[in-house]
Amino acid sequence: MTSHDALPRTARAASHSRGRLSGRLVLVNLSIPAAPVALFLTGLLVTGGETNLQVLITLGSLLLACLVVCGISLARWLTTRYRLTAERFELRSGLFLRSRRTIPINRIRAVDLTANPVHRIFGLTTLRIDVDGQGAPAGRGLRLDGLTKADAAELRSLIIERRDRGHARNAVDGDGLVSELDRSWIRYAPLTVWGVGSVLAGAGSVYRTLHEMKIDPLELGVVKDLVSRFGSVPLWYGALLATLAIAALGAACSTAAFIESWSGYELRHTEGGVLRIRRGLLATRSVTIEEDRLRGVELVEPIPLRWAKGAKLNAVAGGLGDREENRRRRALTPPIPRDEALRVAAEVLPAAASPEEGNLLTRDGLAPHPRAALRRRINRALMAAIATAAVPIGLGLWLDPVLVTIGWIIGPALAVALTALAYDAYRTLGHGVRGRYLAIACGAFAHRTVVLRREGIIGWNITRSPFQRRAGLLTLGATVSAGDGVYKVRDVSVARGLALAEAAVPGMLAPFVERDPAAGR
Questions:
Q1: What is the side-by-side strand order in the sheet with 88-93?
Q2: Alpha carbon of 408 to those of 17, 143, 389, 402, 463: distances in Å?
Q3: Residue 53 burial (CB < 10 Å; 0-12/13-18/19+)?
Q4: What's the pLDDT at 201?
Q5: How many angstroms separate the first and last alpha carbons of the chain?
Q6: pTM, whole model, 2 decimals?
C-alpha cells in the first residue's frame, strides 16, 4: 500500500481511523426528515388547515421512509473505507452485506465531480469513478460521497496522474478553453420542448399525491374559483387559454432548467488528452471525456430550436456509463447558435479540419436516399392521419354525429401536416464518407447529424423489413462502443448501403456478402 503522504488530506486524516469517510455526510442526510414536515405544512396550506387520518398516515409513511434512508446512510458512512495505491483503487463498504471493490488504475476512464444543493451548503461533493466496460457491469462505477471539494479535486488529480503515468501527456495550447457560457444563449431555453411535458408530469404527480391523501383537487378553493370564472366561456376559448397557460409554464420551466443546468458552463481541453465540461448553478457537475475514447459528435436540432437556427452538440464517447447515464452526461453544449455548435465540433474532433473533410456536420454534399424512402414516409404519415381521424368518426357513428364532422376535419388537416413532415424527414436523410469520418443525417421532429470516426466502427448491423425488401431498401447500422451503440443509415438502397459499408471500413463486411455472378456484382 502507498504511504499516507501520497494520499489527499481527507485520506491521510482518515487513515488514522481506518480510512473512514468524512462524518459530515451524516449531517447532510439527517436533513432529509425535514421534507415530510414541509409537505405537511404545504398540505395544511392547500386544504385550509383541515386534515384527516389518511393525510397523517401518508405523511407518517414518508417520515418513516426518510428515517430508514438516514439510517442506511449512517451505516454506509460508518463502514466505508477507501485506499489509493500506485496500481489500484480499493473501496470497502457494508454493515450486514460487506462489499469490497478493487479497480486497477489503468482501467479508470473518467473521474467526475458532482455536488447537489445540500452538498454545496456543507461544502461537500461526490466523486465518481467510471471504469472500462470490459468485465464491469453497466452503471457500477464507484461513488464517494461526503468529500470536501478541495480533497475531491486533489484525489481526482492523483488518480488521473497515476493512470497516465508512463504515457505521453498531450500539451494544451493556452488555457485550453473551447467554449463558455454566453448569456445571450438563454433565448434558446424556452424552445426546448420538454418543458411542457414537465408541467404535465408535475400536475399528474400533484394530483396523485392529493388523491392518496383523500383530497379531491376539484373541491379545492382555488380550483372552484377558476371554474366559476371560466365555466361560462365557450369550450374552444377555455381550451385555448389552457393551451397558452401550459405553453407559458413550460417555457418558464425550460428557462429555469437552462439557468440551473448551464450556469458557469465551460468546455476545456486539459492535459492528458481530456475534455472537461463544467456546469450547474445549484447542482454543480464536472464531466471528463477522454479524447481517445471520443468516437464522434452528434448535432441535434429539434423543430423549435431549428426555427431559431439553434442546435445542441452531444459527444459520442465511451466511458460515460450505461445508456441512461450516457444521455445525462454526453452533452457538450447547451442549446446554442448552430454556427457556434459547428465551431465547437471542429475543435473537439481529432484532426477534423483538413480540407478533405471540410465541415463535417453540414448536410450539404451528403448522398441522398432513393425516392422509395420518401414513399415509405408518406405512406406512414397518411396511415397515421387515417387512424387518428377514424377514432372520432367511429365514436360519432355510435354517440354523436358532431364527432363525425370533427373527424372529417381532423383527417385532411393532419394528412397535410404529416405529409409535409414526412417530406422534410426525407430531405434530411443523407450519408457519406468524409475523410476519416462517416457522416449520417436523419430525423423528423429533430434533425440529427452524427459523424463517427471510421476506425471506431466495430461492426455493421443490417436489417430489412418486408416492406423494405419489396422496395429494395435496407437499414445499415454502424456499431460503435460508445454513445447509443448503433447509428443507423435508414432506408438506403441495397447496393449503395453495401458500398457505403465497404468504403467506411474496407473488408469488414466482405466475408458476409454473397455476390451475384449473373448480375456481375
A1: 81-84, 88-93, 99-104
A2: 76, 57, 7, 10, 37
A3: exposed
A4: 66
A5: 63
A6: 0.76
Rg (CA), the chain: 28
Rounded to 5 degrees, φ, ψ at 161 are -60, -45
> What does the angle CA 228 – CA 232 – CA 236 come to, to the nearest 5 degrees?
120
Of all helices (H) and strands (E), which one includes residue 280?
A: none
> Exposed, middle or buried, 220 (CB in 10 Å: 0-12/13-18/19+)?
middle
CA dihedral of 195, 196, 199, 203, whole degrees rounded to 10: -160
Quick: pLDDT tens for 249-258.
878 888 888 8
CA atoms within 13 A on the CB side of 284: 16
Q: Which has more confidence, 369 or 241?
A: 369
Lowest mean per-residue pLDDT among 26-40, 75-89, 161-175: 26-40
Task: Provide the residue type at 408 as one letter.
Answer: W
Three cell numbers written together for 89: 483503487
Taking Cα atoms as reference points, which of 140, 91, 107 lies closest to residue 321? 140
- Among 135-139, 224-228, 390-394, the range scoring the smallest mean pLDDT is 135-139
Q: Are the beta carbons of 158 and 6 closer than 8 angstroms?
A: yes
